[in-house]
């Protein structure tokens, strides 16, 4: 059973978004996604101050035998990057919703959140295997 | 026997030497007088210091931890691990080949140029092309060279086409080469018979199609029977056909990419033409083209001017240079020697035996493994470990189990469109007894999966080292030896 | 099937048994899936097979039509050099466990190759002063082009600046490679025998991904890497240095002078000239670019018992995983030549490689000074390693013909690539004796005076 967390929104590319107040959000990948990837060995995040665009590549996650693009669920400016992943990428496997977060973004278009899925809808999306 | 696990740096002792340089017969130079201080090396490079015998023992010990074709069967699909003839090695080491300089005057290198010229001509015959460049150093570089020619050809025609089509079973270098040549890749799904789906192809071929890249026989070891139709579809849309020669070992003297309708071909001399793989290279990936593409071939070209062989740079439409000098000459010498050894009849027999062997082994193994494409194959075939996966044993585990019997495993998990794939290429140089023995072991492993899976899951049991932690290797990479780290590790061992 | 071949083991009986097992009567049935209209009718139109003894004779004859460096003292360099290769190198790389193996995909039975590459990577890091080196590239020239592509990809800028004092073949290949993704290659002019720093300063801008120089440069001169690094830093361009690894035994490591990427060819260390290939490119970077490096990389790890072992690692960079998202399509390396080079570096050792580099410096210095004493002009203003340029009163081509008549292979004619057809680039390695150098100078004197 894939874990989801109720206070988050999800994209169909398996990223989650946590609203931190104002236009600031935190972004990570879902438990389902980390499970599919297997042991994560490296994350390439954008840098602080980089612009990200909804549904476009913002970085890459590597496991031993795969490299997957991370698609940003929202548009905006990167305001914080989880530097701890540099030494401990396995945090994404171990705590995808907590210590394994990727970046924080100041959104330029908060309406984009409306197109994301809530936990129930994401759960359903994953269950259907429509991925 | 005592295990030897040292790095060359760990057996180094200050003051030992393993070579003998002459004394200087000219005046000494003080570096401080000649070079600015900041450009003089301050800390010497920490190269090892060992005697010649220590060096020999070290590398001999390493070689003993390595499996080559000479050690045993190596049915690595798509890699054509056939016997590497010894005469080829002797010839490449003749001083007239190994100690000549690429820039010495052409008139002092006529033997080398003649060899290159004749090899170009013969590879053109073998592939059914009109001209060949020997410059590319490997298959991947050949692919990129070919695609750059496609680009130049289209440009000259005033066209900009952006798409290169590859089947879903293609090797990773095909799409990667398309990208580095500046094209976008479109993946064409295979049909249920493992072949290019012509109807699906038609949907993707249009005025933006620059080329279709194909191996034939394809990566599943199956001949693309509809190749003539495929070529027609691509050509009618104004695109070109690129032949990836990875599987050319199946067709020597039987057909040619030229006859199939291809415009560009690369060959892997380290596969089909017996030059050694060397543990990963050097190889050679000559590229042949049809007449309309000759002007775009890389410079320089080796040509014959009456009875002289010349190096020609005057090719205004050429894509330019792709590799230093004239390609991997030493490898080309080996391939030339091989072609001379075999002749036309011999090369045809190579493919006939390669295909016979693959079919023989296929039929022996099919009752024990899932065979997604059970039909006549060419020089290789694929099986799936899906049956075994249901029992909790993956193809990787079976591959590791093979190591216990002294075999190099087949290619695994490639092509990507076959679940738990095992891709097996016995080659023509293996004897029937070897294939029979290998088949017996494969069958034994299939039975072990049913009756005693742990022996497979825990394998290999007989190798110098067990399965290695690849996750750790990629998370915290240690990519070089340092004294400090070695000391740290020693401390940890003492502690534990 | 009729004639027998020593590489094909099937007996008539083997064939019959296999055909019977397949329930067919002839091998031809296995080729029926090839449409008849594209089958070859007769045999391939290539020369007939030759038995081994005759073939060996034929190949000896072909080889003897080339003048080789053992018989003709050679003063050609320009990227490929006639150096001492300890006998032990050829013996060790001739162990077929090494040369008949494929890329080490199965680490349990490839520890020898993997460890050898790990040691090679270490030696390259030591010489270049860099953090990370890969398992090798096709050659130094293509390695340089890959470095430029890496710089363009990682800086997301679209222009590279390359000095005209970089090997002409490097620049030619760089231009071909750049044509793929479509980035711009601009050349930096020369100021005498070195890169013109004023031009560099004028050309460098915010869109410059990298500045590329050679060390020693094509004319043998030692560029001041520290100054070039300062200029590269003004706009955040990466600094790429192509270096002769032998020279690094005595010259300051580029890594210590600020290089981001160091490339070059290991040919001077243990690899025969072989008419230009196969040689062995190397590729080294600072830690920052570790996961952007093209090609295979070997890393150290451990098995379940904690025993040290080696594997191919950081594979998620590579074409077999990234496919069309990969930044390089390279799939092989020059493993056997990297091995040759490691063995040569091991044989030479920490002091030996310095001695060898020093011999090169001294022989070249001797020859240049002798030429100057005889009234020739040495064009290098900067200090040089084992190569330098001499001005000749006659076209180089003519002089080289005279030298050849006297059994000497002369230097490189700068006419073709630079238009300086009266300038000869001369390489003097440790292989050249004082006697050979003196003889060269005698012939040179006679030929320009006569």
From TrEMBL, chain A:
Subunit structure, interactors included: The glycine cleavage system is composed of four proteins: P, T, L and H.
A GO cellular component entry from the record: glycine cleavage complex
InterPro entries (UniProt xref): 2-oxoA_DH_lipoyl-BS (IPR003016), Biotin_lipoyl (IPR000089), GCV_H (IPR002930), GCV_H/Fam206 (IPR033753), GCV_H_sub (IPR017453), Single_hybrid_motif (IPR011053)
Any one Gene Ontology BP term: glycine decarboxylation via glycine cleavage system
Name of this protein: Glycine cleavage system H protein
Organism the protein comes from: Domibacillus aminovorans
Keywords: Lipoyl
List of residues that carry N6-lipoyllysine: 65
Record domain Lipoyl-binding: where: 24-106
Function recorded in the entry: Is also involved in protein lipoylation via its role as an octanoyl/lipoyl carrier protein intermediate.
NCBIfam families: gcvH (TIGR00527), PRK01202.1 (NF002270)
Family: Belongs to the GcvH family.
Cofactor note: Binds 1 lipoyl cofactor covalently.
Cofactors named for this entry: (R)-lipoate
UniProtKB/TrEMBL annotation, chain B:
Enzyme class: oxidoreductase
EC number: 1.4.4.2
Pfam families per UniProt: GcvP2_C, GDC-P
Any GO MF annotation of the entry: glycine dehydrogenase (decarboxylating) activity
Keywords: Oxidoreductase, Pyridoxal phosphate
Residues that span the membrane, as ranges: none
Catalytically driven reaction(s): N(6)-[(R)-lipoyl]-L-lysyl-[glycine-cleavage complex H protein] + glycine + H(+) = N(6)-[(R)-S(8)-aminomethyldihydrolipoyl]-L-lysyl-[glycine-cleavage complex H protein] + CO2
Cofactor (UniProt): pyridoxal 5'-phosphate
GO (cellular component) term, any one: cytosol
Any one biological process term the GO annotation gives: glycine decarboxylation via glycine cleavage system
Gene3D superfamilies in UniProt: 6.20.440.10, Aspartate Aminotransferase, domain 1 (3.90.1150.10), Type I PLP-dependent aspartate aminotransferase-like (Major domain) (3.40.640.10)
SUBUNIT field: The glycine cleavage system is composed of four proteins: P, T, L and H. In this organism, the P 'protein' is a heterodimer of two subunits.
Function summary: The glycine cleavage system catalyzes the degradation of glycine. The P protein binds the alpha-amino group of glycine through its pyridoxal phosphate cofactor; CO(2) is released and the remaining methylamine moiety is then transferred to the lipoamide cofactor of the H protein.
Family of this protein: Belongs to the GcvP family. C-terminal subunit subfamily.
Name this protein carries in UniProt: Probable glycine dehydrogenase (decarboxylating) subunit 2
From TrEMBL, chain C:
Keyword vocabulary terms for this entry: Oxidoreductase
Every Glycine cleavage system P-protein N-terminal domain range: 6-444
Superkingdom of this protein's organism: Bacteria
Top EC category: oxidoreductase
A Pfam family recorded for this sequence: GDC-P
CDD domains in alphabetical order: GDC-P
GO terms of molecular function: glycine dehydrogenase (decarboxylating) activity
EC number: 1.4.4.2
Presence of the UniProt keyword tRNA-binding in the record: no
GO BP annotation list: glycine decarboxylation via glycine cleavage system; nucleoside metabolic process
InterPro entries linked to this entry: GcvPA, GDC-P_N, GDC_P, PyrdxlP-dep_Trfase, PyrdxlP-dep_Trfase_major, PyrdxlP-dep_Trfase_small
Catalytic activity line of the entry: N(6)-[(R)-lipoyl]-L-lysyl-[glycine-cleavage complex H protein] + glycine + H(+) = N(6)-[(R)-S(8)-aminomethyldihydrolipoyl]-L-lysyl-[glycine-cleavage complex H protein] + CO2
Similarity remark: Belongs to the GcvP family. N-terminal subunit subfamily.
NCBIfam families: PRK00451.1
Function of the molecule: The glycine cleavage system catalyzes the degradation of glycine. The P protein binds the alpha-amino group of glycine through its pyridoxal phosphate cofactor; CO(2) is released and the remaining methylamine moiety is then transferred to the lipoamide cofactor of the H protein.
Subunit field text: The glycine cleavage system is composed of four proteins: P, T, L and H. In this organism, the P 'protein' is a heterodimer of two subunits.
PANTHER family reported in the protein's UniProt record: GLYCINE CLEAVAGE SYSTEM P-PROTEIN, GLYCINE DEHYDROGENASE (DECARBOXYLATING)
Protein name: Probable glycine dehydrogenase (decarboxylating) subunit 1
Origin species: Domibacillus aminovorans
Taxonomy of the source species: Bacteria, Bacillati, Bacillota, Bacilli, Bacillales
């Amino acid at each position: 059973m894939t874990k989801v967390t109720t206070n988050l929104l999800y994209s169909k590319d398996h990223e989650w978004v946590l609203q931190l107040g104002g236009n600031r959000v935190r972004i990570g990948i879902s438990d389902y996604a980390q499970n599919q990837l297997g042991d994560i060995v490296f994350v390439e995040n954008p840098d602080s101050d980089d612009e990200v665009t909804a549904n476009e590549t913002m970085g890459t996650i590597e496991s031993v035998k795969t490299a997957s693009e991370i698609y940003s669920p929202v548009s905006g400016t990167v305001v914080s990057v989880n530097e701890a992943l540099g030494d401990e990428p396995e945090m994404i496997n171990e705590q995808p919703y907590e210590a394994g977060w990727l970046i924080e973004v100041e959104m330029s278009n908060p309406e984009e959140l409306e197109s994301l899925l809530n936990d129930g809808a994401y759960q359903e999306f994953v269950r259907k295997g429509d991925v | 026997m005592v295990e030897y696990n040292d790095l060359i740096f760990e057996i180094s002792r200050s003051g030992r030497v393993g070579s003998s340089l002459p004394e200087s017969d000219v005046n000494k130079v003080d570096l401080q007088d000649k070079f600015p201080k900041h450009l003089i090396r301050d800390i010497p490079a920490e190269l090892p210091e060992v005697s010649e015998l220590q060096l020999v023992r070290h590398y001999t010990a390493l070689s003993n931890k390595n499996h080559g074709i000479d050690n045993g069967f190596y049915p690595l699909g798509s890699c054509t691990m056939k016997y590497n003839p010894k005469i080829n090695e002797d010839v490449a080491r003749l001083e007239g080949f190994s100690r000549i300089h690429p820039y010495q005057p052409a008139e002092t290198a006529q033997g080398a140029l003649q060899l290159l010229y004749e090899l170009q001509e013969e590879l053109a015959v073998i592939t059914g092309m009109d001209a060949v460049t020997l410059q590319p150093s490997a298959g991947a570089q050949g692919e990129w060279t070919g695609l750059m020619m496609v680009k130049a050809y289209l440009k000259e025609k005033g066209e900009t086409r952006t798409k290169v089509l590859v089947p879903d079973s293609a090797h990773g270098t095909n799409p990667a080469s398309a990208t580095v040549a500046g094209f976008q890749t479109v993946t064409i799904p295979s049909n249920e018979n493992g072949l290019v789906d012509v109807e699906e192809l038609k949907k993707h071929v249009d005025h933006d199609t620059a080329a279709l890249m194909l191996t034939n026989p394809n990566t599943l070891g199956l001949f693309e029977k509809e190749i003539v139709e495929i070529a027609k579809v691509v050509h009618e849309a104004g695109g070109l056909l690129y032949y990836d020669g990875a599987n050319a070992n199946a067709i020597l003297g039987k057909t040619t990419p030229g006859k199939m309708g291809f415009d560009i071909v690369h060959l892997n001399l380290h596969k089909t033409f017996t030059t050694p793989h060397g543990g990963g290279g050097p190889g050679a990936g000559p590229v042949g083209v049809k007449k309309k593409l000759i002007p775009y071939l890389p410079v320089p070209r080796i040509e014959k001017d009456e009875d002289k062989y010349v190096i020609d740079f005057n090719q205004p439409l050429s894509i330019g240079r792709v590799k230093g000098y004239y390609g991997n000459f030493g490898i080309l010498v080996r391939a030339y020697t091989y072609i001379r050894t075999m002749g036309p009849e011999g090369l045809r027999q190579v493919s006939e035996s390669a295909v016979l062997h693959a079919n023989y082994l296929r039929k022996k193994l099919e009752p024990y493994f899932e065979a997604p494409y059970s039909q006549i194959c060419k020089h290789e075939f694929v099986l799936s470990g899906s049956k075994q996966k249901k029992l909790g044993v993956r193809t990787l585990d079976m591959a590791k189990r093979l190591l216990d019997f002294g075999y190099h495993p087949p290619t695994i998990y490639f092509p990507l469109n076959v679940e738990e794939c095992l891709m097996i290429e016995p080659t023509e140089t293996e004897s029937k007894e070897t294939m029979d023995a290998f088949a017996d072991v494969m069958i034994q492993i299939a039975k072990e999966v049913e009756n005693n899976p742990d022996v497979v899951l825990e394998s290999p049991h007989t190798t110098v080292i067990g399965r290695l932690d690849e996750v750790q290797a990629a998370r915290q990479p240690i990519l070089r030896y340092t004294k400090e780290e070695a000391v740290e590790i020693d401390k940890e061992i003492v502690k534990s | 099937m009729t004639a027998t071949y020593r590489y094909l083991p099937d007996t008539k009986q083997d064939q019959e048994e296999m055909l019977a097992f397949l329930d067919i009567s002839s091998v031809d049935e296995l080729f029926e899936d090839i449409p008849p209209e594209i089958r070859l009718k007769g045999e391939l139109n290539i020369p007939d097979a030759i038995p081994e003894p005759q073939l060996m004779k034929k190949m000896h004859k072909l080889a003897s039509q080339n003048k080789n460096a053992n018989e003709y003292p050679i003063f050609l360099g320009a990227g490929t050099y006639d150096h001492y290769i300890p006998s032990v190198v050829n013996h060790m790389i001739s162990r077929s466990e090494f040369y008949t193996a494929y890329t080490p995909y199965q680490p349990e039975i490839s520890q020898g190759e993997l460890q050898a590459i790990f040691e090679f990577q270490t030696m390259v890091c030591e010489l270049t002063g860099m953090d990370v080196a890969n398992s090798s590239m096709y050659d130094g020239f293509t390695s340089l082009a890959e470095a430029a592509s890496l710089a363009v990809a990682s800086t997301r800028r679209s222009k590279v600046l390359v000095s005209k004092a970089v090997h002409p073949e490097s620049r030619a290949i760089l231009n071909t490679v750049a044509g793929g993704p479509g980035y711009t290659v601009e050349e930096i002019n020369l100021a005498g025998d070195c890169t013109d720093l004023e031009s560099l300063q004028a050309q460098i801008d915010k869109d410059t991904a990298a500045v590329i120089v050679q060390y020693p440069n094509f004319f043998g001169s030692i560029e001041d890497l520290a100054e070039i690094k300062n200029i590269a830093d003004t706009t955040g361009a990466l600094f790429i240095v192509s270096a002769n690894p032998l020279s690094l035994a005595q010259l300051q490591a580029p890594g210590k002078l600020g290089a981001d990427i160091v490339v070059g060819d290991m040919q001077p260390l243990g690899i025969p000239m072989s008419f230009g290939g196969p040689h062995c490119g190397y590729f080294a970077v600072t830690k920052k670019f570790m996961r952007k490096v093209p090609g295979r990389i070997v890393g150290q790890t451990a098995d379940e018992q904690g025993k040290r072992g080696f594997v191919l690692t950081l594979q998620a960079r590579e074409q077999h995983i990234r496919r069309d998202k990969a930044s390089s399509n390279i799939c092989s390396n020059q493993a056997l030549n990297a091995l040759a080079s490691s063995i040569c570096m091991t044989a030479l050792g920490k002091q030996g490689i310095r001695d060898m580099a020093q011999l090169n410096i001294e022989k070249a210095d001797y020859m240049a000074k002798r030429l100057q004493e005889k009234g020739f002009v040495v064009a290098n203003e900067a200090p040089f390693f084992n190569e330098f340029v001499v001005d000749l009163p006659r076209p180089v081509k003519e002089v080289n013909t005279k030298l050849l008549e006297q059994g000497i292979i002369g230097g490189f004619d700068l006419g073709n690539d630079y238009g300086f057809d009266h300038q000869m680039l001369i390489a003097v390695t440790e292989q050249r004796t004082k006697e050979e150098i003196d003889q060269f100078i005698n012939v040179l004197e006679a030929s320009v005076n006569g």
